[in-house]
Write a structure and sequence with these properties.
By secondary structure, the chain is an alpha+beta fold. 37% of the residues lie in helices and 30% in strands. It has helices spanning 12-25, 31-43, 83-96, 107-121, 158-171, 180-190, 233-247, 262-271; strands at 4-9, 54-60, 63-70, 76-78, 102-106, 124-136, 149-152, 193-197, 203-209, 216-223, 252-258, 273-285.
């Protein structure tokens, strides 16, 4: 290895020992890498699929400058890159020879990587979704708050969680990030989903939160069944989950939105979330 090289790492522990400080140095833009690797560490490397995850690190003069990770069959995720670093990464990935269905990351970086991948492989890169990362500033409860209350989901809610997780993933047009049953069990284990329920106890919407890593918590997913939308349930439960994350000591409370959904973007800004950076998801096609 030279002084400025990309190299692949197949062992999670080795990756975290090498790149952990780098990821923790910018917890907001690195939220996905932090939370995904924490899930892999605590729940096993098969949590996102049957094929083993893999990772990569760019070193410059002995210091980590950028990283990537992939949990097949899902897209590659990369941290911020310069155009030169993106070109070098495309060469590294092409030489590695593994199929690559797409990439996600901060907009400018993944745009450069997608173009470099097209030039090197002949693939066609197409934007699948544009997202915005938000950080909570001053929390403002939405008004008027609908009737009902927030309640942390427990074991008795497992079937509901499994159902709604599947519906959420279908609604956002993505394959399941992990098995619904495993997702529900993990969230129940640490109180990671909150319902907004009606006065009769019927769940009407849910908002989840990742475990705290490097002082950051990401609110996800937020879901209301189609027939119950527009009544304030999502805003009420998101505000409650955000408040709880702050109360638990989170330095940064984050969430991603689909920029194609103006309703959710406006809602989160009313609650007190402010933009951090824009992210893009690309699919690669031949």
């Amino acid at each position: 290895m030279g002084s400025d090289d990309w190299y692949r790492i197949d062992d999670l522990g080795v990756f975290l020992s090498r790149a952990g400080d780098f990821l923790r140095s910018r917890p907001a833009p690195h939220t996905l890498a932090l939370t995904v690797t924490e899930q892999l560490r605590t729940r096993g490397t098969g949590v996102y699929g049957d094929e083993a995850p893999y990772f990569g690190v760019l070193e410059r003069r002995g210091a980590v400058r950028a990283v990537y990770f992939r949990t097949p069959p899902h897209r590659l995720n990369v941290t911020s890159l310069t155009p030169e670093e993106a070109g070098a990464l495309a060469a590294h990935l092409a030489a590695d020879g593994r199929p690559l269905p797409g990439v996600s990351g901060e907009r400018a970086s993944v745009g450069e990587l997608a173009r470099a991948w097209e030039r090197r492989t002949g693939a066609r890169a197409a934007v699948r979704q544009r997202q915005r990362l938000y950080r909570l500033d001053t929390l403002t409860a939405p008004g008027p708050v609908p009737k009902g209350r927030a309640r942390v989901a427990g074991e008795a809610d497992r079937e509901q969680l499994v159902c709604w997780y599947g519906e959420f993933m279908a609604a956002v047009g993505e394959g399941a990030g992990q098995r619904a049953e495993g997702w529900a069990d993990a969230r129940i284990s640490y109180g990671g989903v909150t319902f907004w329920e009606g006065t009769d106890g019927t769940p009407l919407a849910m908002a989840g939160a990742t475990p705290m890593v490097a002082g950051q918590v990401r609110v996800a997913p937020v879901y209301t069944p189609a027939e119950l939308r527009g009544r304030g349930y999502a805003g009420a439960v998101t505000a409650e989950v955000s408040r709880a994350a702050r109360a638990a000591g989170a330095d940064e409370v984050l969430l991603f939105t689909d920029l194609g959904n103006p309703t959710s973007n406006a809602l989160y800004q009313r609650i007190g979330y402010r933009p951090v950076a824009d992210f893009d998801l690309y699919d690669f096609q031949w």
